[in-house]
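Why should sequence recovery work at all? Because a backbone constrains its sequence more than one might expect. Tight turns favour small or flexible residues, buried strands favour hydrophobic ones, and helices have their own preferences. The token representation captures these environments compactly. In the example below, the structure is given first.
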């Protein structure tokens, strides 16, 4: 998110001065690290939680799925522009064609998936979506799903060949390198410990060099807090009213990974299924092809873990330290009304290695333990916010908090996260810079052509955009 915002700012206002502070010794080591996320390029092509089933068996509502796909198209357009100007290198260094498949078992979910397909098949941004309940067809799409599977259970799948695998770590590093070449200052091993408002409305940041323990003070007219789960801590320290009442619910995760070439060559897709009852959306089980540093592997998971840290490289005191009088009621309300989530997390924690592997075998019946290793995935901090009726709600998604004067903005939340970074950061640009940058919308549209319009409402424009970005990014 920070790299995206900085790059957008440099392109619409080249003379702007940018300073980046990174706690770790290099960028993209937390949530953007390719082994800490699925790299799906969330476009709602296969993620069923973005289009939940209706309660009465009618056609499910596609609005959220369409909106997320629309947002991902902005990212594709922006990355295409960055490739054209040399800010991003060879597209294969960060994005690769990987079909997106939804796979379900049981008569009820087969019926749902069929109805979901009927809704999406005529949507411009879902052009080419295929449905099948024939095991032979599904096997041709993803052999590992079918080999060794008993034939006594109904199954179905949808496939969209235009799906992608994205290495967000590579995208992030390359954008920061572009910023450095354009006079932005990047400082690693630098932790922002505090920030206070100056009398003129600007901000004074207290920055500690973690290598030398020296402290520096930096003034800024605008601050973006893109610190993952730590964003809440810094927004609370800023004292802005807009951050009051917010909390975060941290959830850790683990993956199974294999680099066995005999398995990898049989699975060129990202396959998502239905979430367990009570599971957070980011815990939807999926079997993914990943391409990192040019090498392909398969990931399965995630398995949820309980951890009070807001970041993988955080502190066990992160959660208790975030408690404030203004967010106690939201925290308590969420704790009292999300027993299914708590039950799910407890169940995940009690799973043995054998039980975890059974979940993989539900996807891949022929899986063998010796081919797979267990990795710790990234830490996700779900948003808790005040609610007038319930007191507090747990929100699954991405949320930007911006002060009333637009001088500070911060990001909370998780999925769809990085996939929609361009859309989210364009919101920040609009809130905080529209008054100071003449013709901002026109400048943005040179970078992101469909900004301000909806591709989903125009089949010809949608097709043209998909074909144009596919050509530049060298994907289907």
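From this structural description, the recovered sequence reads:
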């Amino acid at each position: 998110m920070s790299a995206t915002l900085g790059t957008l700012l440099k392109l619409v206002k080249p003379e702007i001065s940018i300073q980046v502070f990174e706690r770790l010794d290099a960028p993209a080591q937390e949530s953007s690290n390719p082994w800490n996320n699925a790299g799906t390029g969330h476009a709602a092509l296969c993620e069923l939680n973005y289009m939940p089933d209706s309660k009465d068996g009618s056609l499910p509502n596609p609005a959220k799925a369409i909106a997320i796909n629309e947002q991902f198209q902005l990212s594709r357009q922006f990355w295409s522009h960055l490739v054209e100007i040399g800010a991003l290198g060879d597209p294969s260094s960060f994005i690769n064609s990987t079909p997106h498949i939804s796979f379900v078992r049981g008569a009820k979910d087969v019926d749902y998936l069929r109805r979901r397909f009927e809704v999406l098949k005529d949507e411009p941004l879902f052009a080419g979506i295929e449905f099948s309940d024939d095991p032979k067809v599904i096997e041709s799409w993803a052999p590992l799903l079918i080999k060794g599977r008993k034939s006594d259970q109904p199954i179905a799948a949808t496939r969209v060949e235009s799906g992608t695998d994205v290495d967000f770590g590579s995208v992030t590093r390359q954008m920061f390198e572009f910023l450095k070449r354009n006079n932005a200052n990047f400082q690693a091993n630098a932790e922002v410990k505090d920030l206070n408002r100056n009398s003129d409305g600007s901000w004074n940041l207290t920055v500690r060099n973690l290598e030398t323990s020296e402290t520096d003070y930096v003034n800024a007219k605008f601050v973006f807090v893109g610190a993952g789960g730590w964003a809440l801590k810094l927004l609370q320290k800023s004292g802005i009213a807009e951050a009051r009442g917010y909390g975060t619910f941290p959830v850790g995760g683990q993956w199974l990974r294999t680099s066995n070439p005999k398995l990898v060559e049989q699975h060129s897709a990202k396959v998502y299924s239905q979430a367990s009852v009570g599971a957070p959306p980011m815990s939807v089980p999926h079997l993914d092809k990943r391409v990192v540093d040019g090498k392909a592997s398969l990931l399965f998971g995630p398995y949820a873990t309980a951890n009070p840290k807001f970041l993988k490289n955080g502190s066990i005191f992160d959660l208790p330290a975030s408690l404030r009088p203004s967010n106690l009621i939201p925290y308590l309300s969420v704790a009292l009304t999300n027993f299914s989530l708590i039950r799910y997390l407890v169940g995940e924690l009690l799973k043995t290695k054998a039980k975890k592997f059974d979940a993989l075998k539900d996807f891949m019946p022929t899986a063998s333990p010796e081919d797979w290793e267990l990795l710790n995935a990234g830490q996700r901090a779900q948003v808790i916010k005040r609610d007038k009726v319930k007191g507090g709600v747990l929100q699954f998604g991405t949320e930007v908090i911006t002060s009333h004067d637009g001088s500070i903005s911060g990001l909370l939340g998780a999925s769809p996260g990085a996939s929609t970074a361009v859309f989210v950061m364009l919101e920040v640009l609009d809130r905080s810079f529209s008054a100071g940058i003449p013709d901002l919308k026109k400048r943005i549209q040179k970078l992101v052509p469909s900004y301000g319009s909806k591709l989903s409402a125009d089949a010809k424009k949608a097709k043209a955009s998909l074909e144009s970005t596919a050509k530049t990014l060298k994907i289907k």
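A few observations help interpret the result. The chain is about 35% helix and 25% strand.
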